[in-house]
Amino acid sequence: MKNSISIIALVIIGGYFFIQSSPRDQAGQKPGSIYTAGVKKVIDEKCYGCHSAAGKSRDAKNALMWDSLPGLPKGKLVATLDDIIKVVGKNKMPPAGVIKEYPEMRLLPSEKQILQSWAESRADSLLK
Ligand code: HEC
User: Fold this and answer.
1) Protein residue with least CA distance to atom 36, ligand 1
2) Digit-coded pLDDT (tens) for 6-41
3) Cβ–ligand 1 contact at 47 (below 6 Å)
4) Ligand 1 contact via 51 beta carbon (within 6 Å)
5) Atom number in ligand 1 closest to CA 98
6) What is the pLDDT of residue 28?
7) Cα(79)–Cα(85) distance, rounded to whole angstroms?
8) pLDDT in tens, 74-88
9) Measured from the CA of 97, which atom of ligand 1 is nearest?
10) Among 10, 68, 96, 106, which lies 20 to 30 A Cα-Cα from 40?
């Protein structure tokens, strides 16, 4: 009797862990988590100050808001990802005036690479 109770308990506990470990909630599939850790770090350090609710430039906020990017309709999202690829490739962001005053804001080659390959792969997967 004792044995069958512990077998039942084992089955229940085992089932619980089986359900817990099923891959339902993978990072990147939830809305809002389209940024990998590396991408988020670059954005936070070099872009977010202007392109977020706390930003002071209306133009910057109209052009791009990182927090609302994940919720954009597909066409607008692809267009914005293309804009990001372009401005990063042409060293247009952060703006030249800002780099002049704060040289440490300039994107490093490795950071450009991180942002661009992320934006390219996001855009590609949306266009499939
Ligand atoms: C100091 C403020 C500031 C920072 C930092 C900044 N931006 Fe901007 N950004 C702006 C402003 C202002 C505009 C709108 C005017 C313009 O296009 O030049 C803009 C526009 C843009 C646009 C739209 C441009 C277009 O031609 O459609 C993109 C895309 C963009 N920024 C991406 C970025 C990225 C990526 C970073 C980080 C690497 C970044 N920005 C950092 C101020 C900033």
Assistant:
1) 47
2) 655 555 544 444 444 444 333 334 444 689 999 999
3) yes
4) yes
5) 1
6) 39
7) 10
8) 999 999 999 999 999
9) 1
10) 96
Given the structure tokens 């994940």, which residue do they identify? 70
Q: 103 alpha carbon to ligand 1 midpoint, in Å?
A: 16
On whether the CB atoms of residues 85 and 119 are closer than 8 A, the answer is: yes
Question: What is the rounded CA–CA span in Å between residue 57 and residue 1?
Answer: 73
Q: Is 123 in the pocket of ligand 1 (CB under 6 A)?
A: no
pLDDT digit string, tens, across residues 94-103: 999 999 999 9
**Buried-state track 9-34, b at ≥16 Cβ within 10 A, e below 16:** eeeeeeeeeeeeeeeeeeeeeeeeeb
Question: Any idea of the CA torsion for 107, 111, 117, 121, to the nearest 10 degrees?
Answer: -100
